[in-house]
Amino acid sequence: MFRKNKFGVYLSLIVLGSIAMVPIFWMISIAFRTNPEVFASPLKLLPPTFTLDAFSTVFENRELIQLFINSYIIALSVTFICIIAAAMAGYGFSRFDFKGKRSALIYILLTQMFPMVLLVIPYFLFITRVGLYNTYFALILAYTSFALPFSIMMMRDFINTIPKELDEAAKIDGCGPLKSFFYIILPPCLPGLIATGVYTFILAWNEFLFAVILTNSIEVRPLTIGIGMLIGEFTTEWNALMALSFMSSAPLIIVFLFVQKYFLQGLTAGSVK
Amino acid sequence: MNNNHARNDLVEYFRKVSFILPAITLLLLLTAYPLYQVILMSFYDYTDKANPIFAGIKNYTEFIVDPLFWNALGNTVVFTIVSVFSGLSIGLIFALLLNQQINTKFRAIFRSVLMFPWLTSSTVVAAIFMLIFNPFGLVNKFLSSIGFTELSQTAWLGDENTALLAVIVANIWRGFPFMMLMLLAGLQTISNDLYEAAEIDGAGFFKKLFYITIPQLKNIILTLVILEFIWNFRSFDLVFLMTGGGPMNSTEVLSTYIYHHAFRTLDFGYASATAIFMLLIMVALSFFYLKSSIKKEGE
Hints:
Chain A is mainly alpha-helical. Chain A has 13 helices and no strands. Chain A has a single domain, classed as MetI-like fold (Orthogonal Bundle), CATH 1.10.3720.
């Protein structure tokens, strides 16, 4: 659009992009400082003395490591369940016509509108009643229900882009719906499956409200709670808090960098038309 | 014979729905049942926690006259509108810049790096921005270094005039990358011929932006606005972590208002009634989105 002035484009991107990245830069800069230097005056953009103190504070704390493990267990389980359920449902919605299909789709759209805080009250009562309070399973169930609606729509849109002729050819060759789902639909769906997986993993890894309400001990609580609690307690140890924040963001960023190509394809398969 | 036919139909029906059954069962169990529970609870009085009694619409008439409820609703509206439109503008600026014919490596790096805010959890975003908005933090250090000595004394999150603004800034920062990504995908579908034709007619940057780019992106902008509207309207984490709704309720949004009534005062009935009201607002405001999605399904 403004092709005459490429230099301006590069310059704007660098300036605006740098401004947008200040919070990330600041998190890293603080994570590698000693604590007295956090509010060093005058302002020091780079750590005056580069140190890994804050990281060793985090690693020496066994409870924080446990929180990491919990987050992985919960987020990976939710991702696994969600990918399977969403791929199947996406296939069903994309390929079959049946009574109640429209109502089911409308309901899925509606669930996107439920305020989390509306669901958390009955969840809490239900989970305590069935004895699942303070278990991984309580959080896995809850997060699956948040991630499913968007995942189903994403998978359905993605499967819609796969030509119907493929299934029909398979049908003529004697493939049943289940067989054609596994051999015809799933392989070209890889970008969609990855997008769903990444979306779900991010959602489960980052959730906070339900984790506060449905768990109360360090053995099952996810990392977000750990950071949330440190915001209260550690207010004097900002460097450790930033080191932990850095460590909790790094896995998502690394995964995202590897799969972002597929993620973009999957995310935009249906929504950009 | 006829019976057999009906049975075959039923088998056929189950074969078709079997693929969506696991997901739908999970969703009904995990959202429809809780919703039914909340509706029920909203008509009960929880003064005696062990034996709630039916109270009719008492909870509804109570919250509707609470000035703090209207304060929370107002804050939610401000929080949502400012977040959505600022995020959309920033997202569009970055998307437009990234869509230029620039070095592909350069573009790929910027596109990835600009997604980082979206990948950080709300707890991390809250922690970073609490540090930045600390009275001795980065914002004030910067302000004092460029000469705003008085402004640099502000306790951004502790002052009722600035706290909401500070939370909104954190929220926009977390929200813009997703909008950027979707808009960029939309931009890439616009044919270059349109711009070339416009250039021949002598159209400048803004003419092209308002007469070609934005109209071509209409659908995706509409979808984004509604999705973001829903996500922001119900958002909880940032406010809860950064200010807890304070100071003096100046950042209290509907989600934290409901949370406080449910888990601090343990008034489940009152909290449920407010939550139902909140759901109704969201459904009403996204009605057109629902309608157009449903119409699309019909095709």
